[in-house]
Structures are given as structure tokens and as C-alpha cells.
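Entry details:
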Amino acid sequence: MDLKILHDSPPWEWPQGAGKTFLTILRDPEADAADRLLAAEFAGELVVMNDALADALLSIVGSAAEPEELRAQAAISLGPVLEEADIDEFDDPDAIPISEKTFRKIKQFLRKAYLDSGVAKLVRRRILEASVRAQEEWHVAAIRSAYTSGDQEWKLTAVFCMDYVRGFEKQIWEALESTNSDIHYQAVRAAGTWEVDAAWPHVAALAISEETGKPLRLAAIEALATLRPKESAAILAGLIDDEDEDIAEAASEAMSMAEGFSDNEFDEEDEDEDDESESGNRETIH
């Protein structure tokens, strides 16, 4: 199987047995380096992930004999299944590609590897970026340390992780002013995730401006929907007919999301009014 061909098709259209091919390549240290790197990347797709592939990826992450880039890719490829398992909490074990035992093993292994200062920086960064997708107590201190390290690469990792871990609104706001384009991009995403209201003017300006780089603009458009759903409607309406299909599609999706948030806010206000009414009735009765 030519792994390069798989780049051009979605995972659900991959040929049967693709996962076994990835596993064979990952387990063979003599296999072509480029193929092993691709196999590590593809193994992270949930349609092929299983306990055997997870173990193979962990083995690579933990092996100092393996190339640094491969170890880093193996680590980050564990992120999607960690998130899937963490969200589901194994309420439906058959819906999760890995067992609960393997889930716990991955989390414990990654924490231990991250705390090992002898592991290469790139690998440790990818370990942190993957592991936060199933949040644990140690992540908060790790993210804070990475953010304040003075190292731009670690700061980028920290801001990426802030998209998954609550409690860093101040740092996200600060990161929006970063001159590092990658950090700026991740800060916009995190601001939308945690509804950092102070970020609204900055993010709205990015979404409107045609001078904004496309990936950053798309992230800003998505963030608008959660930052201020009602106020974002006018901006998004003006982007739905944009000549750029990606911008138009992103605006349309964000508009639908904003409407959903607005409806929820309306329902919550109604519930609050009902509660106040019932409270008033009870006070009268008593």
C-alpha cells in the first residue's frame, strides 16, 4: 500500500486493513522512515485506532532510539482518541476505539514521559499537546510553566493547550497581542472556546479585515459565534456571500452556531423569569 495516496482520501474511505498496515510499519524499525512517519500520523485517525496501534505509538514515544520527529508525531496522534474517550467516559465502551485500560495506560505513560527532562523538547511539547485532550490536574501547572518559560515554542504549546484547559483567560488575552503568528492564531481559537469577552473587538476586527491571513480569519469567524452571539450576527451576515467559498462557509456555520447560543440564552432568561415568578408566588403563599 502506497501511504502517500491515503493523503488524498478521507479516512473513512481508506481500504480495509489500512490499520494493520500502519501497525506493521510502525513495529518495523527498518521500514522506510517516511512511511513510518506517515503511518504514525494516520494511526491517530479514530477509524483505524485500536489498542494495538495505541501501544505501538506509545512504544515509539518512549524509545530514545527512535527519531525525534517520529516520536513527536506518535505522541500527538494519541490526542484524538484521548479526547474521544474522555468525552464518552466509556458509557458506551463499544463506541470507543480503545479499552478503558489502554486509556488509563496512555494517560499515565504520557505524564511520566512529559516529566522526564531527558526527553527531547519537541517530544515533550507534543506529549503535553496530546495529553490535555483528557485533562488532569497536572496540566494546569505544566501549561503555566510552559507559558512563562520565555521560550516561544513552549509558549506556543501552552496557548494551544489553553484551548482545552479552563482558567487561562488572562493569558489568552495577553497572547492575542503576540507578534508570533502561530501563538496569535491559537489565542484566537482559545478565546472563542472560553468566551473571553475582552477579546471581542480584536477578534471581530480580524474577521472583518480582508488583510487578515486566511487561517487566522477563519479562526476569528468561528470564534465570533461564541464570544458575542447576538452582536456577531451582523458581521457574519456580511460574510456569508463572500467571494471566497471557505470564508462564506465558515460564516454560515458560525451564524448557525451563534443562533443556537442566542436561543439558549433566551431559554435561560425565560427559566430565570419563571423561577422568579414561582419564588414570588411561594412568598405570597407563605
Q: What stands out?
A: DSSP finds 16 helices and no strands in the chain.
